[in-house]
Amino acid sequence: MTNSKDQQKTAKPTADGIAQAAKVAGKKGPPPVHLWNPEFCGDLDMRIARDGTWFYLGTPIGRMPLVKLFSSIIRKDGDDYFLVTPVEKVGITVEDAPFVAIDFDVMGTGQDQEISFTTLVDDVVIAGNKHPIRVVRDKETGEPSPYVLIRRNLEALIDRKSFYRLVDIGAHTEFGGQSWFGVWSKGVFFPIIPSVELEC
User: Fold this and answer.
1) CA–CA dist 86, 67 (Å, integer)
2) In Å, what is the CA distance from 119 to each residue of 98, 135, 181?
3) pTM higher than 0.85, yes or no?
4) What three-state secondary structure class fits 176?
5) Are residues 174 and 151 both part of a single domain?
6) Confidence bin at 9 (pLDDT 50/70/90)
7) Most CB within 10 Å of its CB: which of 5, 10, 62, 156?
8) One domain, residues 123 and 50
9) CB-based contacts of 136, cutoff 8 Å, min separation 6
10) What is the pLDDT of residues 49-99, one digit of tens each?
């Protein structure tokens, strides 16, 4: 006869089970996923597309409260992403970044300005030393992919319309021994592209 402990070990994780554990764990604020070390329970058929859409078993998750709940328990270990609760750790697929920044507000001007990003799941961060912006360019096409750090080692892809708006408030600044075009936030300059490439 199989005892209950054996059944727990062999049972496949489900989205409902993860959601229930996350609700309990997050009752008193953001779950401290970095402190939890449960056993790895396998991979879940869950995927975050590049545009921020969450899929479960190939179907988009239409309930935003559920998406927000899952997004609160994401952890990145190495290059892999997991949903983590005190009792389960399951692998998920992330096509690009786990979050998407869909808008931003600007307070102030010049070097004193602050850029406040909002993600698809309503995280809000102000770009600066704790939440840096970085731009990765495709090696073949040169197409930029901009990101902002949301929490710990989890980034948001800045969507295209927001990136174009960032370019509108950009400036040329000496950085690393050469002139760069980029943006300022909380006294920190974030380079986007060498100035000389804009002159070509």
Assistant:
1) 19
2) 10, 17, 24
3) yes
4) coil
5) yes
6) very low
7) 156
8) no
9) 144, 145, 146, 147
10) 999 999 999 999 999 999 999 999 999 999 999 999 999 999 999 999 999
The larger pLDDT score, comparing residue 169 to residue 19, is at: 169
Distance between first and last Cα of the chain = 74
* Residue 151 DSSP SS3: strand
Which of left, alpha, beta for 181 (phi over 0: left; psi -120 to 50: alpha)? beta
DSSP string of 31-97? --GGG--PPEEEEEEEEE-TTS-EEETTEE---HHHHHHHHTTEEEETTEEEEE-SS-EEEEEESS-
Residue 64 phi, psi (nearest 5): -60, -40
User: Is residue 191 located within the same domain as residue 115?
Assistant: yes
